[in-house]
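Page header: ASSEMBLY MODEL / two components / 771 residues total.
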Amino acid sequence: MRTAAIVFLALVGLMALLPVNFERQFRDSPNAGPSRQFPLGTDDLGRDRFSRLIYGTRVSLLLATAAAILSCLAAAALGGIAGLAGGVADKIILGAADLFLSLPWLFLLLMARAFLPLNVSPMLSVTITFLLLGALGWAAPAKVLRAGLRKLRGSDFILQARAAGCSPARLLWRHLMPNVMPILWAQLWITIPAYVLAESTLGMLGLGVMEPLPSWGNLLRELEGGGMADHPWLLAPVLLLAAVIGSFQLVFEREDYSA
Amino acid sequence: MNLLLVLALCGELRFALHDEPKTTDPLMMADESAEAIGYLTEGVLLRINRLTQRPEPELAASWRISKDSTKITFELRPGVKFPDGSPLTSETVVATFRRLLDPALHSPIADTFKTEKGTVKVTTQGPLTVLAEFPAPTAGMESMFDQIAIGSGLGPFLVAERRPGVSIVLKRNPSYWKRGLPLADAIRIDIEQNRDLELLRFRRGELQLIDKLTPDLYERLVKEAPGTAVDAGPTLDSEFLWFNQAKRAPIAETAKEWFRSTAFRRAVSQAIQRADLCRVVYRGHATPAAGPIAPSNKLWFKEDSAPERFDPATAAKLLETDGFRFQNGVLRDRGGNRVEFSLVTNAGSKTRERMAAMIQEDLSKLGVKINIVTLDFPSLIERMTRSLNYEACLLGLMNVDPDPSELMNILLSSASNHPWNPSQKTPETTWEAEIDRLMLAQAATADYSARKKSFDRVQEILREQAPVVYLLHPNALSAVSKQLTGVKPTPFFPHTFWDAPHISIAKSGGGG
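Prediction written out in full:
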């Protein structure tokens, strides 16, 4: 299974790099069904859905993954400090995390968009959006990580390591890191699709990927009007998203440390 | 036989509004939902017939306009009674206008009756005679009274039950002055924001009317329930784009120079394929626009005007004559700057997003780069009216009144809603000065041919100067159940229930 997942991800990666013309409008063929010329049909403006899916994969995989990594790195740093140091640092970080979770981030993003210059390229606009998502999304994974570390800190094997004179650096590197990595990976796999979907929502508010750039998010918006029974090829972005996330999970197998 | 006929004709009419009405005060109604309720429950002195586009007597049995177009005298219909039994008199009308024009009320409808020269005075001239005096000659003044609800409860229906966010039930007004009407016993109006659900409920027979359908839902209905979808032709609404020409706008001077160039604006207008916008975005249910007036506006449309012809070659030549040059797929101005600007529109409108993407592709063939930005509506309005921090904007205008005076707040250079350069102290261009003069002239006379001549020239100037690139007029798309009779869909709001008193419901038959 793992090999199959690696091969699949490699194929998706290669596919995402294919040179495609995702913006050309075939205005005589809007909403066309699959054909040899358009394997997944065309969208409302007659653009080839397959080309848009390929380019959208490049945009979403790259940027949603980058944003998720940013969130998880910030969560690792802050959650790690809170979980290990405890005391005042723990209280401050927990307070900040609660504040971030309670903030109406949608309005924050709207405000941020209002302050951005209008005349920016679609790629720069979407990069900024994902950066903002990444910067704002650290709180939930940080709390999960902190809880995991607090539990680990009081566990028998850590106490034994300490009693054996293990240095703090070795304790962190040899004993704590391997045990919190599965938590971090899990947070990453949760966050990537969440950001892809968040981008889709933001698109409706003018913060997502701007025309003519495609993304998984704005391809998913095509499902809003229903009609999947008659047009099952509209489900291609959903299937690809699910397959990619599933494959990532298979490639980076989680260790069961609960026992 | 008669009993059977009555049984067949009575019943409950059911349709949905997309939003909760923001007010129940008839003098404060400004949103579409509130206006719809007001239309069904309130009485007006006269009503514009949506089919003939002419005013017809309602609470006023007749009216006469003075020769100098400054006064209108209404003779009220005798015997009209409110639900509590009290009679309609001229005092009621005067009291309504006193309240409407009270600055403390802040009525959005009152602006129509206030000008720089003063406010309309409404006085009683007898028990059933009302005089309205305008501070200056005003053309088409009678149509202004179509919106003013006199008192409360003089319409064909009364509000019987209101469940906020869920539904509003209207029942037949027993004291309605048109004897034997309305034909329906009641109207149930559900609040249904989701248009897909609204269509589904129509198909199930739970709703009998959909006043406004989007083109994709219309197409779906045509396939699923033939004979229930109605295309009533182009509305008075228009979709257009314009460039920010305001001197004080905080945008690059180079961009302002392009936008102030008539050749640039005309070239953009010629490079846009309006027919494609209508066919692809509106699925054929829109009409390419020649100007602000839709062809359905029979009285004021300039007969010989046609939409700007799609001609990218002429557009390129026009740009060349103005110092622009096309190099390696990029258009550059005299100073060598790449022609690139942002086009803002409101977020959440699929049709405008699609139109923007098509315009982006059309103009890319001229070497113009457009960055599309969708903004939430408050941010967009703030940029358009206050900060003026935008370059080009794609929006639409909903027009209710076919009279050109309705466009005064858009076309006068001093108007705050003058899109391309609002609130000018004096007109900054000679052609804007000419538009101002012509608009004021047409408003100062009741002579239709003189008004038409002035307004035709305004339409010509708008075509020549292209300060606004008019794109299309969307068609009025609606759904009418086969259970209903007496529904006469028109391109004017409300499209399907404007003659609600004459709509009747058969007891059997599916919604679709």
